[in-house]
Structures are given as structure tokens and as C-alpha cells.
Amino acid sequence: MKGENSAAIRISATTLGDLLMKGWDKGGGKEALVFPGERKSYDDVVAGVINRARGLKALGIGRGDHVGILLPSSIEFVEALFANAMCGAVSVLMNARYKAPEMAYVAQNADLRAIVTNDLVTEHVDFGARLVEAFPDLPTAADPAALTLAGTPLLTQIIMLGGRSAPGFVDQARFDAAVQSVSESDIHDTRLTVRVRDTAMILYTSGTSANPKGCLLSHEAVTREANNLARYRWGFQPDERAWSPLPLFHIAAMLCMLGAMDVGGTFIGQPHFDAGESLRQIEAEQVTMMFLPFVTFHQAMIAHPDWDKTDMSSVRLQNSCFAFMPDRVGQAYRDKAPNMLQVGTMGMTEATGIVTTGGPAMDPEMGFRKLGYPLAGIEMKIVDPDTGAERGVDERGEILIRGYNLFDGYYRDAEKTAEAIDVDGWYHSADIGSIDADGHMMFHGRFKDMLKVGGENVAAAEVEAVLASHPAVRLAQVIGLPDDRLAEIPAAYIERDGYVAVEPDELIAYTKSRLASFKVPRHIRFIDEWPMSASKIQKFKLRAALMAELGLSD
Prior knowledge:
Blueprint: H1 16-27, E1 31-35, E2 38-41, H2 42-58, E3 66-69, H3 75-86, E4 90-93, H4 100-109, E5 114-118, H5 127-134, E6 157-161, H6 172-179, H7 184-191, E7 199-205, E8 213-218, H8 219-233, E9 241-243, H9 251-262, E10 266-268, H10 275-284, E11 289-291, H11 295-303, E12 317-319, H12 327-336, E13 341-343, E14 345-346, E15 356-357, H13 366-369, E16 373-374, E17 378-383, E18 397-403, H14 414-420, E19 427-435, E20 441-446, E21 450-453, E22 456-459, H15 460-468, E23 473-483, E24 487-496, H16 504-512, E25 523-526, H17 539-550
């Protein structure tokens, strides 16, 4: 199954730097970015990007270097992304919720040359403290611009922007001084050397292996996807005011932001999701497009005291996934905003975010029940996972994808890349789907041992590895349980070593100190004898037993 004829639809492939410059040409003095307490025009964003790129280049960052972005969603994040692109560097997007061990792993695995962060300290973040925990020898570094850190030999600098200085970090004053040695024309000269097939960014996604894998996404994949979605499927206009409270280190929100800027429109976001702030933004900012595919956020907004009084009449289209959600969530939008077109979506990081989605031409009710059809230039088919034979209408099988949007492999993991992409260029998602007679997609679950917690991918193996590192744990098995708020939550069965006493609360605290909070098991049960097949633990039996105990049902 193919999307629309991409020869008839002139989808633009460019570089991130050029996308920004084209957006500036359309937008000029108009608002480009809006976040709580800050807003900038295209003129000001471009000036900020060029300034940051000058500083990076002066500090030795160049084409092909891997630069981590450890920032909350903000104007600063967007400027850091485009500044890296202007220098020809590869942006490695680091989850702002990472704990120190996760930061250290990504820095080492991604071969980071530098990390860009800030000195923000809130109830949510203190990046400086976490980085010092991740790299204990950082405070004793002789020269912040020439670090030599144990375990990460390529990481030579961590740039902390803002007014605070800390040992081991390149601070704002040093960065500003470096800016003066590189001209604006130098940056544009470098920008013009970047090619569309160069790697633009690396996004880490949890797989069935214990550690997350870095997906290599090209400039072409990212910019073509944004252009395809914004202009041709969702019909963005220059006066579009697209809103998403999702973090920009996820490809989903990234596409919404890039799509808005591709047409010279405005992107509105948040550093951290807040239901009340979301409702305020939708009304006050006259949002025209909402990008909110996860049930957790919808439920929080619907339950908020301001839901009933919030005016959503400016919103023409919302990208969501009501097909995955309780009927009451979709009904709340039918009742509140009957003229708001709902479009479903199916995608994954390996396919640059979105593979199928709806659009204005679809039957409006389909947006509540289906996940749309492939974008132009993308092929999709459903096959028997054992034989490879293509499935028929409404028959379930593995989702396979091929097109310009596919990632270029997992960084430093040729074996996993070869397992994921076959010799004919098809990406094997290990997800279960079906296609109806009208070509609409439906998702039915995962072959992979993967959880989806409030929109975040969580690999059971990663959580199991952390639990198993506790001295009292002999073996850990993590399963997913249904949850009204988060869609799915982790739970764990533990076989104790027998020599060390341990309680569930202790294991939960142990895991919480090493992993982001969404990965932490909510329930822990101890077990002495595992349900087994001939050679494997039968997780479905563990899940059924715990669901029965807790009175849960799918």
C-alpha cells in the first residue's frame, strides 16, 4: 500500500538550516515560537541561531560532530537544534528526564563531542547536578573546553548557558567571548555545505534490548516528513498556530514544530505538560492545530476545572489517537468541539515519527476510529511475521514500512540495523496492524517486549537489567498493565537471591534512582517458580495473574 503519488505532490527535501531560512523568508517579523513567558519572531530566532552557531564553531564544533542537546522544550532548545544544523553537526536529543546513568550511557554510545545545556534549576530539572553525577570528574577538569572524562573520551566540552558558572562547564561568558571570533558569513558558508542525506539528528528509542538504540535520521527524512505533513496532509497555512505540549526531544513534537516553521507559521509549546496551562494556551494563543496523540494529556485536560469554560473554537484540526483511547475521551471532544477535525496517527522514531495519518478529506468520524493512511512517498504492508506473505483486508500481521522517511540505521549497531531493515529496504516494525478496505490503518499491539507508558517507549529489558543489578535480585521480569491515565504501566516479578532481604518499596526506590520515573515499576511481586514454556518464561501468564489479583481487565 502506498501513500499519494509523490511525483504529483512536490514534497520538499532540504536541510534543517535551509528550512529555517525559508521559514524566515516567509515569516520575517511574525511570531515563530511561543512558550510560557517567552515569544520570538522569525527575525529574532534566526539571529539567536546564528549567534549560537558562531559560538559552537568557535569552540571547534564542525560538520559531523555529535552534539547532545539536554534542555527542556523551549525557544532555547529550538535555537540549539538549528545552530547545530548550521554548523553541520549532528544533534543528539537527550531526554530531559534522564537520570545520571542514562546520560552517561548516551554520551558514550553516541560518541558525543559536546553537550549543550543550561543552568536552570526547578522542581523538574537540575541539569548541572545530574551531569556532575554522570561525570564525577567534571568539577576537577583543568580546562572546560578540553575535557578528558573517564568513559567518554570524545566528550571535550559541556556548555552551560545562563548566568551561573560551575567548575568543568563552559559558561555563558566564555561562550559569548568565543562568538566574536566567527562571522555570520562563516556560518552560512558552512550551512551550504550540508547535504540532505547527511545525518541531522540521533534520537534514542527503547527497544527490546536492555539499552536504548540511537536512530540516525537524515535531513531529508526530517524535513520531507515535516513538509509532507504540514503542507499536503494537514493543510498548514502561513497563519497556522500549531500547538503541542509534548517534549521536543521526541520526534512527534519535533515534526509539529518543523511543520509550522516550514510554512512560516507559529509553534506554541511548553517546557513541561501542565493541563491548566495547556487550556490557557489553546484559548489565549488562538491555536489552530493541536498535536496531542497520548491519552494521558487528554485525560488531565478533560478533568481540569477549566475544561468546560475553555474556548477551542479557533482549532480546526487535532492530531490524536482516539482509536487507542477510552470512548469517553473522544466523546468529550465531540461534545466540546464538534467542528474540530480529528485525525489519527501511527508512527515510530525509526520512521521519522509519522507513517499514517488522516486529513481534511477523510470522513470526520474516521479520526476517532482509525489511524489514517500512508503519507506520500511511503509504502506500507501487513505480512505474516513467520512466512512474509502479505495479509488481506482487515487481517492482522506485522507492519512493514519503506520510504524516504526510514532511519539510516541504529548508531554503532550494524547487527540490530540488519535485523530491522531487510535487503529490499523494508523496515520490520514488530508491531501488529491491519488495513481496512478503504486503506485506513489500525494498530493492534506489539510483538516486541515493549511498554508504552504515557507516550514513552519503555523496554522491559532495560528495567529488568536495573532490577537485576540489585544484590537481592536473582531474576527480574517486567510486564505491562493497563492504566486509565497512562495507557500502560510497568510491573515486575522478582526472584530473590535468597541471601539478602528486600522489600518491594526498596526495589522501587532503587530503580527510581537509576531510571526516569516513567520506567519505574508500580507493582512488584516476588516469585519462586516461573511459568515456563520449553525454554522461555511465559510473561503472559505473569501478566494474567497480576491482572486478576488487581482486578484489572484489558
